[in-house]
Design goal:
GO molecular function, one term: transcription cis-regulatory region binding
Radius of gyration: 21 Å
CATH class of the largest domain: Alpha Beta
Number of strands: 11
Distance between the termini: 47 Å
CATH topology of the largest domain: Rossmann fold
Number of helices: 8
Keywords: DNA-binding, Phosphoprotein, Two-component regulatory system
Largest sheet: 5 strands, parallel
Oligomer: single chain
Strand content: 15-25%
InterPro entries: CheY-like_superfamily, OmpR/PhoB-type_DNA-bd, Sig_transdc_resp-reg_C-effctor, Sig_transdc_resp-reg_receiver, WalR-like, WH-like_DNA-bd_sf
Number of domains: 2
Structural class: alpha/beta
Order of helices and strands: EHEHEHEHEHEEEHEHHEE
CATH architecture of the largest domain: 3-Layer(aba) Sandwich
Shape: globular
Biased composition (Low complexity): 131-156
Region (Disordered): 126-157
């Protein structure tokens, strides 16, 4: 896993860099918003630790631009702005988590691990991760193996969610989803047509120990709804006031 630290204060960046490196991650550090955008655009970044008080571009604008450019990795905002409104705005523009300064390094690392677990695509493995099957010697009596059955196809133009790969498609176009957006979509898709309560979504996606504002859920659903609409998915993501959300097919709508 490769992380990017975006922090212009050397006194904060240095211990943060050492702590993350001790966890075994590859780490890059930049001190400006434009450098962060350029580094992420170049590829290979799995998670960004983003300070808001940057000298050239406000961190919120950096977050917004990264998401607009299709970055689907994790973004954790680190900032001295601790008000609820600031947290909501940060999450609304695409951040996955938010830590107010000063923060505990152990708590930050725990949040990084949790976010990487959620966003990791399990099909990306190295050769050492999988034992190679022993070769078999064909004989005259060997029966050719039947071809593997293809994965079930989505309804033409419909939505397909692959939990194992942590990917979602509308027809043949993949949706650019953040880790939290995917988790919300997958949970709603598992119970398509039924209402999933806000409490269930918060407990499953953010975990039961989340004590922040549930407005972060509304922000995530709002971004997800917009992406589904932009992809012309024949799907409705409805809000059931006072209860939760429902994902259902919209192909039969007049």
């Amino acid at each position: 896993m490769r992380l990017l630290i975006v922090e212009d204060d050397d006194a904060i960046a240095a211990p943060l860099l050492r702590a993350v490196q001790r966890e075994g991650y590859e780490v890059d550090r930049v001190s400006s918003g434009q450098a962060a955008i350029d580094t992420v655009t170049a590829g290979g970044i799995d998670l960004v630790l983003l300070d808001l008080g940057l000298g050239d571009i406000d961190g919120l604008d950096v977050c917004r631009r990264l998401r607009a450019d299709g970055f689907a990795g994790g973004i954790v905002i680190l900032t001295a702005r601790a008000g609820e409104l600031d947290r909501v705005v940060g999450l609304d523009v695409g951040a996955d988590d938010y830590l107010a300064k000063p923060f505990s390094l152990s708590e930050l690392l725990a949040r990084v691990r949790a976010l990487l677990r959620r966003s990791h695509r399990p099909e990306v493995v190295t050769a050492d991760d999988v034992a190679s099957p022993a070769p078999t010697t064909p004989t005259a009596s060997t029966t050719p193996a039947a071809p593997a059955a293809p994965a079930p196809a989505a309804t033409p133009g419909g939505l397909r969610v692959d939990r194992a790969a942590r990917r979602a498609w509308v027809a043949t176009d993949e949706l650019p989803l953040t880790a939290k957006e995917f988790d919300v979509l997958a949970l709603l898709d598992d119970q398509r047509g039924a209402v999933v309560t806000r409490e269930t979504l918060m407990a499953e996606v953010w975990d039961e120990n989340w004590f922040g504002s549930t407005k972060t859920l509304d922000a995530t659903v709002g971004r997800l709804r917009q992406k589904l609409q932009e992809s012309a998915a024949p799907i409705r993501l409805d809000t059931v006031r006072g209860v939760g959300f429902r994902l259902e097919d919209a192909a039969g709508d007049a």
